[in-house]
Description:
Elements lengths: L7 E3 L8 H5 L2 E5 L5 H11 L3 E5 L6 H7 L10 E3 L5 E3 L1 H11 L14 H15 L19 H22 L13 H9 L5 H8 L1 H12 L4 H7 L4
Parallel strand pairs: 2-3
Antiparallel strand pairs: 1-3, 2-4, 4-5
Helix pairs in contact: 2-4, 2-7, 5-7, 6-8, 7-9, 8-9
Bound molecules: glutathione (GSH).
Amino acid sequence: MASGRASILVNSFSEPASEMSALNPLTLYGAAASGSVAVEATLTLLGLPYQLIEGATWAEASARERVAPANAMRQIPTLVLPGGEVMTESAAILIYLADLHPQARLAPMADDPLRRPFLRWMLYVSSAIYSLHWIKPDVKRIGAPDSARKAVVEAVHARIAFCWAHMDSQLTPGHWLLGDELTVLDLYVATVSRFGPWRECFYAAAPGMAEVIRRVDEEPRLAALWRERFPED
Ligand SMILES: N[C@@H](CCC(=O)N[C@@H](CS)C(=O)NCC(=O)O)C(=O)O
């Protein structure tokens, strides 16, 4: 993950879906090269405007303080709904947004057999892979001394590679990860697979998913967003 700007931006990747949402937009605490980009990609595909409060929480104390009133975990993505309710947890936010807009077909519905692998892998990416990244900014978080930093980060990266390989062995992608429809799982994997140990390791660990995720990168509705939000790739 890269360091981000501390500024307030209004998304320019999508047109307002309705006058109501334009007047009362969502507020998203996020940062370039972070998990919020999956949420930004979803909001872009849904055409929902949002106010983005930028800040690289893993790198800047000021960014952590900025999000703290909304999310005491001091993490992003943190989404504030128009009525003021706060949502955290990237997988939950993505599933919620997709379910709320079924016409966009960004998630299989509850009675679709694909709903099971959809939920399984959404929660897996969150719990088995994304959560491991919390260790890396400061290995003392798990009680390891700074002198062990290199070994701890290597072990985390090895575990992440193992987890991608396991997922790859269990999925048979179609045009997209779950078949014919692009879902928020594609956006989630395209985002989290860009965190260290970076895409090269993901491609090596998960050759079956690699082709699909390259396709997600090239999705025309998202190309500008990916370019702006993962500028170092
Ligand atoms: N379980 C959370 C994890 C979110 C998370 O780890 N976010 C990172 C940025 S990508 C963060 O804010 N880290 C702050 C820190 O390391 O203190 C989710 O899935 O949304």
